[in-house]
Amino acid sequence: MIIRFTVAAILNVMIMVLIGCSDDPSSIGTDLLKDDRLNILEKDSFTDTLRQSSSYLKRVSPLGASNRILLGRNANVESSVLLKFLLGLHDSIEADLLEDSINVLSAKVILTQTYFFGDSAAPFDFSAYSITSGWSAVTFTSDSLGLLIYDPQDVSFNRNFVNNDSLEFNIDNQLVLNWLKAKADTNTADDMGIYIKSSDNTQKVLGFYSYNTSGNPFPVLEVIIEKSGTYQDTLSFIPYGAVSAVVGSFPAISSENILVQNSLEIQSKLRFDVSSIPSTAKINYAELTLTLDTLETIRGSAYTKSVMAFFLIDSLNNSLDSMRLATLSVSGHQYKGDITYYVQNWVNGINNQGLLIASTILGEGVELLAFKGSSSADASIRPRLKIVYTIK
To answer: pTM value?
Structure first.
């Protein structure tokens, strides 16, 4: 016997099934949960007992990989800049340099501004010095400043802004001529660049494009040379070393708050006690929320719109898993993010050392983000952890 089904018959069967299901739409889910012995539960550090603690600290990191170099001082920070240039020369110019037939008519450094911190109309000035000791942008940190050796004579002059976005200043012609001769003569040590330091009356921090910024103006050393009676030429060099050295102290803030400050590398530690969640639990979702203290937060022209949460391996030595991080994105006065991975590990028995909260992009500015900490008198604005989990 051949049984034939029409489209209408198939539709009728589907409708009858749907009607049967609609009699008790919740029973299917309930039965499944019951059969598998599942319980979906929630924990909220605001309403439940999840003890927490927080603090902040200052770390030291190399800042040579940043897209910006920072110069100036404001509030609790001061940043200076180290630059050295890649002096590529044509063979004929090298020959003339070795014959001592080249003069430097002018040498000018050009930096393109991309950021400011503080009052944009505040005073800004600086000096530049010839560095006489070796340094590397890869390893240079604020702690390296104490070892830096430089000539105390200011080699900069004609310092001014052009079109409100480019900072230009001349440096000593003889210094640059010495650099070029050193490049031409392989037996002579290469130049060590210049150290640029803000003056005491400076009241803002400016950021300039660095040498590794794709698609944006590089710092440039523009040199006009002359071989008397023969030729005059303009040479342009870009850096092969550029670094900001940011120093400063902890700002005066409320004892209830914790801090994240870019470049100065003030970071915060945060820990929640999740031992009340069974070790067999499956963490479906965990969200961390940090609330800003807007009165103590200071932002620059391109403020940090997210912070990172790292998995701490050893909170005593501030060791972290650099391969694991969560991003907390800004939403109004709060920063929120998914930390499910971390909470699942803590529940599974991995030693709960907590989280390290840090700036997203190192060296991009000196923004100071003040968050309400675990000791805040108002429990509703303390760091908040919401956890949804399943127990079988």
So the answer is: 0.84
Contacts of 264 (CB under 8 A, 6+ apart): 58, 76, 77, 246, 247, 248, 366
List, in sequence order, the alpha helices (H) in the chain. 7-22, 27-35, 91-98, 173-184, 340-347
Break the chain into its structural domains and give their ranges.
34-59+265-391, 68-247
Q: Are strands 205-209 and 156-162 parallel, antiparallel or unpaired?
A: unpaired
Q: Cα 210 vs. chain centroid, distance in angstroms?
A: 14
Q: Are strands 257-261 and 368-372 parallel, antiparallel or unpaired?
A: antiparallel
Given the structure tokens 């409708």, which residue do they identify?
Answer: 15
| Angstrom distance (rounded) from CA 370 to CA 378 | 15
Angle at 251 between CA 246 and CA 257, to 5 degrees: 125
Q: Record the tokens describing residue 45, joined without a space.
A: 């550090």
Task: Count CB neighbours of 295 within 10 A.
Answer: 10
Kindly state the tokens that stand for 58: 């200052």
Cα 264 from chain centre? 10
pLDDT tens, position by position, 252-298: 999 999 999 999 999 999 999 999 999 999 999 999 999 999 999 99
Provide CB contacts within 8 A for 266, sequence distance 6+: 56, 57, 58, 250, 259, 260, 368
Q: Are residues 261 and 348 in contact, defined by beta-carbon separation less than 8 angstroms? A: no
Answer positive or negative: Cα dihedral of 253, 254, 256, 257: negative
The C-alpha atoms of residue 354 and residue 221 are separated, in whole angstroms, by 47
Give CA–CA dist 178/190, Å, rounded. 9
Is-contact 137 170, C-beta < 8 A?
no
| Integer angstrom CA distances of residue 157 from 30, 83, 192 | 79, 17, 19
- DSSP string of 151-164? -SS--EEEEEEETT
Nearest to 168 by CA among 106, 247, 88, 103: 106
Under DSSP, the state recorded for 67 is S
pLDDT per residue as tens digits for the range 177-229: 999 999 999 877 677 999 999 999 999 999 999 976 567 788 999 999 999 88
Output the CA angle 369-375-379, nearest 5 degrees: 95
